[in-house]
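Please check this protein record:
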Amino acid sequence: MYFDEQERFVYKYESIRSDVSDMKGREKSEQKRPYDHITGVILAGGSSKRYGQNKAFLEIGGIRLIDRITEGMKNIFERVILVTNEKKGYEYLGIPVMEDIIKELGPIGGIYTGLMSLSDQAGFFVACDMPFINKQLVRYMVDIQDNHSAVVPLVANDEIEPLHAIYAQSCLGPIRDLVDSKRYQVRLCYDQIPVRYVKEDEIRKFGSPTRAFLNINTPDEFSKTQALMTAGARHNEI
């Protein structure tokens, strides 16, 4: 091979390698872009009977729970809304705040209101008192939804996580039927819709299910959560 041919070969090889590198970079960047076909829905019920105050405004490391989860959801979803039974106090978040259409129903009321408020065909619904949301797991759930009406984590002992789940507009009818019949557990509609359960072995690819779905119900649980946060957030958490 002559010298000028070698130069052309090296130049061509470097150009191809650069193009491949750029393509991989674009693919990686695109994967991290906020989803624009599904809405992030934060459920902030208001004053908790078990805790004795509004958990959304509890602070961990000087940051309110509601601030932490709002910013995290904005990094995953282009559109984020908040559903609560009392709008006052959330205006500063800079996202649409929806007040419960039917009061005092608990989580199912928040999911119903959220679905009624969506401009997209589905939403990822999460409780505001879950400080260790795993963003890679959330993205995985969105990516596997396909034509399912719901995507719901299923962990040890067949326990489900209905407040860390995707619900499509097609859930509205079954949920409304539950509300009309005064049955206020959203899981009761799962038999009527196509559900994609996310099994524990899938979840563990992204981290600990116990940590990902940890929520705060009592002051003692809040103290334990503060200790975990002090130990440091994981790289894939919001």
The two ends are 55 Å apart (CA to CA). Residues 9-13, 15-30 have pLDDT under 50 and may be disordered. DSSP finds eight helices and nine strands in the chain.
